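Risk register update: the risk that structure generation would not scale has been downgraded. Supporting records follow, first protein first.
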Amino acid sequence: MKIRFGAAALSLAALLNAAPLFAQDGGVHPWLEDDFVVSLGSFFQKEQFKIRVDGQVPGREIDFHEDTELSKDHTTASLRARWKFGEKWSVAGQFWSTDNGAEAILKEDVTWGDNVLKAGSNVGVGTSLDLARVVFGRELFTDEDYHEFGLAVGLHWLEVGAYIEGEVFINDESSGFQRESVSADLPLPNIGAWYWRSLSPRWLLATHVDWFGASFGDYSGSLWNAGLGVNFQAWDHVGFGLSYQYFKIDVDVDKSDWNGNIQLIQDGPFLSLNVNW
């Protein structure tokens, strides 16, 4: 974690040191004027993943990182894009995907549905997440001091999965080696807001937050997706970004093949190459 944030801080310092080379008077950052912005970068995330898979008797949640020592740190590619159409409207999207697998020795008994994996067992474990986010925004104001603020409504579509494989016990009797897995597609609508502040034609402060908290089909719970960062416009249509991203879901699942809960947090710095026109 210290290495990730240290690298992010050094990158930001390099951009700040380069600012005088590109300084110019007047004008606003092009993101407030251009119709298209596309960002491709790396998300250096730290992950917390917990699930509960209930059987006849509700079990305790499984912390995939603490109970199995699964790696918490990931680096994944992420794509973001925004199209401003009309005078006040925009649509934005984002996608990233993570897969994490390892072998571990369980620190304590793990219950998965009606099955138990005993403490000390050597098991294989894994998690996966594919996330797509689409939001439609309405700009509320842009003043002469180069601010932009707007509200949005959209959808987060998540494909979440997890598995454990090893020797399974039912009523204290071994049923041999098995693979127990769950997966779900979570379409979670959300509301949100964003705020951009043009500090100069080269520098932009950008922040956003999305939130969901309600029941929707087979799911109920909450979602947070927030970010805060700066963008440096190095050339007319190319720039660089450094931001901190935070994503959290806490959702109860009530499906025929998975009755339980999922808690997931991913957060960390996001470095990007931005193209705008």
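Supporting record for the second protein:
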Amino acid sequence: MRPIAEDVLRASFINASKGEAARMNLPRDFAETDWSELDFLGWHDPGARERAWLVAERDGRVVGLSLRVAAAGVRGFTARSMCSVCLTTRTGGGVTLMSARKTGAAGRRGNTVGQYLCGDLACSLYVRGRKQAAGAQFEEAMTVEDKIARLRLNLEAFLDKVAE
């Protein structure tokens, strides 16, 4: 990903008002972000843990999503879930249901799209092996480049669902 300036990032949200984007808290380490390792920037709002933000490049432009984080349910430590973007499996609640309000008339009617995502939104780091999920992982006979391409396709499908 190319570095994104704060004003471009705040203007990129397709399912949040300008006021929401202006009030959003950026990641604490935003100025030190290593963009070269990211396919998208995702973070939890430090001021509101039930809110998360995701920003990606799509067709030469920056697209941002406002996300709501589902309340954590009671799960056993052995429960295993899979992120629908990077396909990393996690135990102990490491994958969280997040929802994005749809754009346009559907969003004004309250329609949302849900997606199971890595709770820390570090999908890019998991597929590159820069971060390890707790517990055993499934071995895949895919190159890192293929995993990155799959992550991007899955992310684009999610963005498409929100924007349709």
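The first strand starts at residue 40 and ends at 45. On this basis the risk owner (M.S.) recommends closing the item.
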